[in-house]
Design brief:
The chain has 10 helices and 45 strands. It has 735 residues and is an alpha+beta fold. InterPro entries: AB_hydrolase_fold (IPR029058), Dpp_8/9_N (IPR045785), Peptidase_S9_cat (IPR001375), Peptidase_S9B_N (IPR002469), Serine_Prot_S9B/DPPIV (IPR050278).
Length: 735
């Protein structure tokens, strides 16, 4: 579950009706200790609700015809009595009694295993990745899985572990297994571990900003890249996503295994790794106070402030190969490599490229033959270049342009090629209509000077004033046997997320599979016979149910999901919980806008009440958490997307920077509260420091609350509790 960030939680505006005299307002006031008790109980309940639900599902079909279960369902969850996520599984029965509610038992995969480091002491790399991913949960937070062998690989306790279940070795029957620690000679934390799909004896990981591989059977490990020289402020790295790519584009890895191995004539096999090599020489170094304040040290971060230099990069394949022509020469307008991967047959690597303005996107294919061995010998390099097959080139199979900006998404499904000249795929486009929708596209792979491919066909699969969910890890599930694509979207109402299915062969009907009145987050099984939904609404806490998909004869599209079993029932709301009321109104844009209002428990009809509005402004009171106060000092990827580079929009940067307008702040005390984590490496404490300096210079009052050991997200439970008490106390005293 995401950790709360100060900006998410604390940017609020408070309105009061100035026509009413104070006696007409009734605000129940509590002491600091009274508020602490209320917050403590509330956080305990909400924390249980937020972290308890299972997630990251993996369906595995059982092939025992005589056994009682059809699937084993693996997932991460927090077992009863535990405070950390673990790897769990449940058995899905072949038959159920429809008149009885079946609640699946959660079974431990791992035997007496503590995944959280001792006293929560994460390494600097782990801590920063948790910040970028907004992770608040402890324990195992992700895992990699190899279906043929049943191999699970995960990071825990500052180390790497694996275990096996299912696959060719059968399933564990009852007793949990003891995970095997993967020993290492590496100093420092091994990050981003992944199983090699073509040979699961091999894994890859990042150590000290370089790429390594290891054989889990023999214990051998090898450093593949030597980009990072070990210097404290070394600008080069391999296989690592940079700060801006993680924070603003949601890409958290910098290397990708090919999906299969290539057989050699001698009987051996070759596996490939595509990785990103980054040079941050042009990126400014920012010094942020270290958590170990008593040592008087500062952590150094490469942080590209808007208008300054971004990283330089290239994509390199394994076996010490590099592109025939440097990446920036092949694609001269590219500023960001937003997404990378392989086609399912391993024939091409692919990448999503963005220019600096984020108004032009290119989807490109990179054949492995385009990479040649790295060599300092000109003759050897020339020999390698001569061996590159004729007409080997990248292909730009799709382009998008817009006059605003392009939101990078996670939906790309390449079909296996049936002819050498054509390449078909499912893609999301938001630029065409302003709403993200699915398209099936066929491009013609014809060599050309500019690498651009003609579009043979572009079929609209979904359309209308609603969205297919495509960002922040969203998925689609494509059943090539029935020509159906399953996706999540907002077709029924923007207030709810549902699972839908549509034909990509003859698009028309879009069929909803989840029940209305709730918002769902779903995962579909590999065989398209089950899905699991985590769903809730404003008056019903989350529950997790498993549904069976049984298509009617001859019509797989119009399937009727059948409730099969429960993994978690809704725990119910506290007795004093009043759900918010949803309201809507027409906006000036012509679209209907929606909101939620939480009414006070002691609401008295006919009397006006102080109102807290979650926006970034005044007029009565303002609370700002980790505020960006000078846009020139924020990062490139976010700021330039909406505001262009500073030299093209000087007026916008000045008008949008609150620290340059402190003369407009009120002169009465107790109207402005600023909160900031001192170690914040995203919105640096500089922003608050500069704002407060300007406020003092202007002679204006303010209140400042600093959290000395917190970053952009509040991690320490005591800090989280304190800032919520601080917020409520400020409201009740001064609103």
């Amino acid at each position: 579950q995401p950790a709360p960030t100060m900006t998410d939680q604390l940017c609020v505006t408070l309105y009061n009706n100035m026509e009413d005299v104070p006696s007409q307002f009734f605000v129940e006031k509590h002491s600091w200790e009274g508020l602490r008790d209320i917050i403590h109980c509330s956080r305990k309940y909400s924390g249980m609700i937020a972290n308890k639900a299972p997630h990251d599902f993996q369906f595995v079909q059982k092939k025992d015809e005589n056994g009682p279960h059809s699937h084993r369902l693996y997932y991460l969850g927090m077992p009863y009595g535990s405070r950390e996520n673990s790897l769990l599984y449940s058995e899905i029965p072949k038959k159920i009694r429809k008149e009885a509610l079946l609640v699946l038992s959660w079974k431990q995969m791992l035997d007496h295993f503590q995944a959280t480091p001792h006293q929560g002491a994460y390494s600097r790399e782990e801590e920063l990745l948790r910040e970028r991913k907004r992770l608040g949960a402890f324990g195992i937070t992700s895992y990699d899985y190899h279906s043929q062998t049943g191999l699970f690989l995960f990071q825990a306790s500052n180390s790497l572990f694996y275990c096996q279940d299912g696959g060719n070795n059968g399933f564990i029957q009852s007793a949990p297994v003891k995970p095997v620690e993967i020993k290492t000679q590496c100093s420092g934390t091994r990050m981003d571990p992944k199983i090699c799909p073509g040979d699961p004896d091999f894994i890859a990981f990042i150590n000290n900003n370089d790429l390594w591989i290891a054989n889990i059977k023999t214990g051998e490990e090898r450093r593949l890249t030597y980009c990072h020289k070990g210097l404290e402020e070394d600008p080069k790295s391999a296989g690592v996503a940079t700060f801006v790519i993680q924070e603003e584009f949601d890409r958290f890895t910098g290397y990708w295994w090919s999906p299969s191995a290539v057989e050699d004539p001698s009987g051996g096999k070759t596996v490939y790794l595509l990785y990103e090599e980054v040079d941050e020489t042009e990126v400014e170094i920012i010094h942020v106070p270290s958590p170990a304040l008593e040592e008087r040290k500062a952590d150094a971060y490469r942080y590209p402030r808007t208008g300054s230099g971004n990283v330089l990069f290239q994509i390199v394949s394994t076996q010490d190969k590099e592109l025939v022509v440097p990446f920036n020469s092949l694609f001269p307008g590219t500023e960001y490599i937003a997404r990378v991967g392989w086609t399912s047959d391993g024939k091409y690597g692919w990448a999503v490229l963005l220019d600096r303005s984020q108004r032009k996107l290119q989807l490109v294919l990179l054949p492995p033959a385009l990479f040649v061995p790295v060599s300092d010998d000109p003759a050897a390099r020339q020999e390698s270049l001569a061996a590159v097959p004729v007409n080997t080139q990248p292909y730009i199979i799709y382009e998008e342009t817009t006059d605003v900006w392009i939101n990078v998404h996670d939906i790309f499904y390449p079909f296996v090629q049936t002819t050498e000249e054509e390449f078909s795929f499912i893609w999301i486009n938001e630029s065409k209509s302003g709403f993200s929708h699915l398209y099936k596209i066929t491009s013609l792979l014809q060599p050309s000077r500019d690498f651009k491919c003609a579009i043979k066909e572009e079929v609209t699969l979904t359309a209308g004033e609603w969205e297919v969910l495509a960002r922040h890890g969203s998925k689609i599930w494509v059943n090539e046997a029935t020509r159906l694509v399953y996706f999540q979207g907002t077709r029924d109402t923007p207030l709810e997320h549902h699972l839908y299915v549509v034909s990509y062969e003859s698009p028309g009907d879009v069929v909803r599979l989840t029940k209305p009145g709730f918002s769902h987050s779903c995962s579909v099984s590999q065989n398209f016979d089950f899905f699991v939904s985590h769903y809730s609404n404003v008056s019903t806490p989350p529950c997790v149910h498993v549904y069976k998909l049984s298509s009617s004869e001859g019509d797989p599209l119009h399937v009727v999901p059948e409730f099969w079993a429960s993994m978690m029932e809704s725990p119910g709301c506290p007795g004093d919980y009043n759900p918010p009321e949803i309201f809507d109104f027409p906006g000036k844009s012509g679209f209907q806008l929606y909101g939620m209002v939480y009414k006070p428990h002691n609401l008295q009809p006919g009397r006006k009440h102080p109102t807290v509005l979650f926006v970034y402004g005044g007029p009565q009171l303002a609370i700002a958490g980790a505020p960006v106060t000078v846009w020139m000092a924020y990062d490139t990827g976010y700021t330039e997307r909406y505001m262009d580079v500073p030299e093209n929009n000087q007026q916008g940067y000045e008008e949008g920077s609150v620290a340059l307008h402190v003369d407009k702040l009120p002169s009465e005390p107790n109207r402005l509260l600023i909160l900031h984590g001192f170690l914040d490496e995203n919105v640096h404490f500089f922003h608050t420091n500069f704002l407060v300096s300007q406020i003092i210079r202007a002679g204006k009052p303010y209140q400042l609350q600093v959290y000395p050991n917190e970053r952009h997200s509040i991690r320490c439970p005591e800090s989280g509790e304190h800032y919520e008490i601080m917020l409520l106390h400020f409201l009740q005293q001064y609103l």
